[in-house]
Amino acid sequence: MKQKIRVKIADFCIGVFTQDAGTELVLSENYSPFIYTNKNTTDISIEVKTGIPPNFLSTKEIYKAKHEGSSNNSAYFWSIHNLGENKKIVFTSNPGNTQFPYLALVLSAKSKNWQLYFDTNKTIIDPFIYPIGPLIMYYVATFNNACMIHASGVEMNEAGYIFSGVSGIGKSTMAELFHQKGAKIINDDRLIIRKIKNEFYVYNTPMYYPDESKKMRLNKLFLLRQEEQNILHQIHGAKAIANIFANCIHHNYDNILLNSLINLLTELINKAGVYELGFLPHTSVVEYILNNE
Description:
By secondary structure, the protein is α+β, with helices and mostly antiparallel strands. It folds into 2 domains: 3-142, no CATH class; 146-292, Phosphoenolpyruvate Carboxykinase, domain 3. The protein has 5 helices and 19 strands. It starts with a strand and ends with a helix.
């Protein structure tokens, strides 16, 4: 008997199913608000299977994300391998052994049918277990003219603002300052940006805490730095693209995907204003932005 779960993230419908009667698919509470009940729409279909095919282990590695905190050079968090026929394998490491795969996601930009293999005897499986959940979201977005970015997003007075920058620069702080002035927080760390027709939209993604699915139209993008006073400067062209690109989530092994991201950002900066924002962590920055954008 086939079991199927559908989630809708950034208006992408991802269907996950298994043909194995002995396997039960479950979602963690942070993905539950994204469950989608429309059975007629699926953008990506992922079949869950148990047992990683042995031939996968001899494929060529093209990218590796090392396991933080490990002194073992062969330890990894996740990696990308070539499978041939325009297919890639995303391996994630075994939680108890960071040298061997725990699961393998087979995907292709040219196919809507992917496979997810678990190396486990467990009968209850979470198909979006970290880090495979964010990796699925990344590839669904990247293959479909969208991008993921480290940024917070807020909606205020029917206008959408995102604040991007390196870790610790103040993305969550800016979201909270706007929230104190009545804004709706879309997300405070990781967003998906999509172009739909002639508009750019911003979506939240499942995080480590439960939150409802949210969406807003993008009007302005701010690149953050901390200053002793609030200061705003609009930027254009290559400088704007380079600064946004630096905060986007991307894997540097595929030039086609990188060029697609650059093309998307080129369209974005021609549609939405991009600003460098130096700010004080005080609600006065909200009025400053609204008065000077």
